[in-house]
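Note to self: user wants both folds in one dump. Writing first protein now.
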Amino acid sequence: MAASWLKDAVFYEIYPQSFYDSNGDGIGDIPGVIQKLDYVKSLGCNAIWLNPCFDSPFKDAGYDVRDYKKVAPRYGTNEDLERLFREAHHRGMRILLDLVPGHTSEEHPWFRESQKEEKNAFSDRYIWTDSWISGGRGLNFVAGEAERASVYIVNFFKCQPALNYGFGRVEAPWQMAHDSPAALRTREAMKDVMRFWLDRGCDGFRVDMADSLVKNDDERKSFTSSVWRDVRAMLDADYPEAVLVSEWGAPKLALRAGFDMDFYLNNWGNGYSTLMRDYDQPVDNSYFRAAADRDINRFLDIYRDWYEDTRGLGYISLLTCNHDTPRPRRTLTERELKLCYAFLFTMPGVPFLYYGDEIGMRYLELPTKEGGYTRTGSRTPMQWKPGKNLGFSEAPSDQLYLPVDPASDAPTVAAEEGDPDSLLETVRALLALRHREEDLRAEGPFEALCTEKGSPFVYRRGSLYLAVNPSLEALTAPVDPEGRSPLFVLGGVSAERGGITLAPQSFAVLK
């Protein structure tokens, strides 16, 4: 059973190096996050997912951890992070840290010991073959960089050696079983990291590459799932309100493995990409593009199956964007974004808002930074106000972690605050509505009422009817509103017996 506080949770994802620089060195930091907590709360977000803030050589922006129990000095200190927990809790907010359990940096002390030829306590903490010329049998590996006469398996970049959680199917002498003593020690080491931060006030973790732990797993990830069920048992016993959200993208598996939430990721063909990121297709027919040949069933065919199968197990989390995904402003106009967010924030589960999406920050074409590559353009500094560095930092512009949007019309919080027609205030209004109406929260029932092409998409959340029309013409859905009247409207709506008519590019909630 998921933690009770998730029922009315809305998360805000913060990329710490790009959020707010409190000391003028050009890099965002934890004291800067603390200074902006009231802003985050004003949006209607009562929880934060903080991207990796641990000590790291930053070859993959912190997803290459050098010390799980130490805050990276560029962000501050452990005491700063503990103060963030306290300040958030004082405001009724929660903080999730980003846990990277599948690999570490090649500079982690565990790996420094593991790569030594002489046998030691960490020799089996990572996955090594039995020869300096033996490959990984289908797994990526690095050779020629260790003292020991072996090659090591990597999870992602060359600098990220895979921790040893064992193998589901053992196919070579150097592969250890998932329940081998070495694999179990790795599991306990990661549980120790989790306890360390939970004891200091952390409210849980977003888990990076959550399905990647046990190698040669079966299609249902049975062995990796057993690891997470063991972690879940520890949390249930000692930290019952702590939560886990998985980077898995398969809620049928993730929620049964003990996660409270699983992200609906932007993986090709899974439906989420059809909402606003269909641009890898010959024609961009993203549902929320006004000029698209849209069909909501491209999303619903998968979503409804996942939703029905996992009800009562946990939550599917829809997100506006994340640090790995091009910002939605890349292809959607401000009006299209409003309708898209209206849909995302009124669906079941626990939604996530990526910093800056609430003001329509753009995706910038930039060279790679800290292993970001094409992702770098979604990681630029938060735009707070007009003027120097758009309010992100007092540092010289050439010292910023990444450049700010150079456009003369770059959106900022200050420019949109107080304007009821702005994207920022629309987000605030939508999240206030979600918190106010119990049927719009995580567990309110969901039913699709009209999914026909050429009609508005109409869906039910409990007793509420919701309708969205992203097109450039007025459309009518053959759904009787049954006496319901408009509660919240973007654009225009007419609800009469036998039909709900939406003006072009409109959204409505009927009660």
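First done. Writing the second protein, which came from a different request thread.
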Amino acid sequence: MAILEIKVPDIGDFAEVTVIELMVKPGDSIKPEQSLITVESDKASMEIPSSHAGVVKELRSPWATR
């Protein structure tokens, strides 16, 4: 089974956004276009969808240490 890393897409001209809701957890099965997280800027909030189907292995921040 291949492991795919899904990254938050470019969401416009925002210097910073905050993750305000996690909609999945490790072990969850997901479908393409299923919402994974909700992010919020100073102007709007938006749900970020999955680009692939599969099972969530882990959730991590790009700033997390391994």
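Dump finished. Worth passing along: The radius of gyration is 12 Å.
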